[in-house]
Structures are given as C-alpha cells and as structure tokens.
Amino acid sequence: MFVPSHFREDDIGKLHQYIRDIGLGLLIVADEDGIEANHIPFHLSIEQDGKFTRLQCHVARSNPVWSRLTPKARVLVVFQGPDAYISPSWYKTKTETGRVVPTWNYLAVHAEGTARTVEDPVWLKDHLHRLTSQQESDMDQPWSVDDAPADYVDRLAQAIVGIEIDIETLTGKLKASQNQPESNRVGVKKGLENRGEKGDCIIASLIR
Q: Is the pTM for the entire model greater than 0.90?
C-alpha cells in the first residue's frame, strides 16, 4: 500500500484498536495457484509480554483456502475502515483559486505475516468464545457461545478450520485531509457532518 508520510499512522495502539473496531478483514492468499481473497471476521490476540501479536480467524472446512496455507505461508489481511467522498465545494480555496479537485478520505490497516492452520478442538472453541466476546462486548445483553446447546456448538466446530497469523508488518493509512490547509479541513468536516451519510461522521471525527 502506498502511504505518503502525511497519511501514515504509526501508533501501534491505534492500529490495534482500528483492527478491533473494524473486525471484518480481507484475507488474501497468493501462490502458484493464483490469488484468492476471503472476507472473514478476525480476533486480535496480543500476548502479555507484547512480543507476539496474532490474528485469529476460522473458515468453513469446505472453503479450500485453508488447504493453500502451507507451513509458514505468507498472507495479507486488509482491514478497510470508514470512508467518505470529499467534494471540492467544501474547500475554502475553491472560491479563492479554483485549484481544487475531488478526493476520497479513508482508513485502512494492512497486516502481513505467516499463517498456519489449526484443527485442535480446544483451540477452536476458545477462539469462538474470544471472537464472539469481542463482537458482543457493546451489546446490552451480550450473547455467549455457551448460550447455544453444547452438542450444536461441537458439531459446528467440527465443520471449521482455524487460521492463526503471526503479524510481521502492520501498515496504517489514515487519509483525513491532513494535506489541506486548516480552512479546508474545517470545510470538509462541516460538509461531512451536514451530509451525515454512513461513515461521514466517523471520518469527520478523524480530521484533526
């Protein structure tokens, strides 16, 4: 991913939180058989000593992607955050010089590393609990895997394969009008808030 210096996000803590907030990632595998991409919810696991950061997910056993993950296969996971079209009519410089063009503001995090498959039933059940707890944490009445019948969960767990990715490279890009003068950033923020479409308010809040 091309990341100009003014759009680069290097704060690891923020990148980890973005991954948690987005949740759904695009797992990309490329080998001699071609390129394949799968949209999968991920759980971010950080060891207590901070030395190992992993992404964990699972796919249906019938999904052939897991069989392509040879030992230490390298993969890319893309987390696409909120995005918004930016109209040049929001820029103050439009009336001053007319030298403005449309653009798109967005948030994206790319995680690259080595992957392995996991079929251990204990690991899989623990993973399902962690993934569910992560997504249910802000619910008024959080649902738990334990709320479902144990035999039902056991059958479903037999039909999936886990994937664990050791993150080696984490790249963040936040394009939020940082390359514009303050007057234009104010105009973009106001324009987004007034339009109020999905993602607009989030992008507006990221403009600093």
A: yes
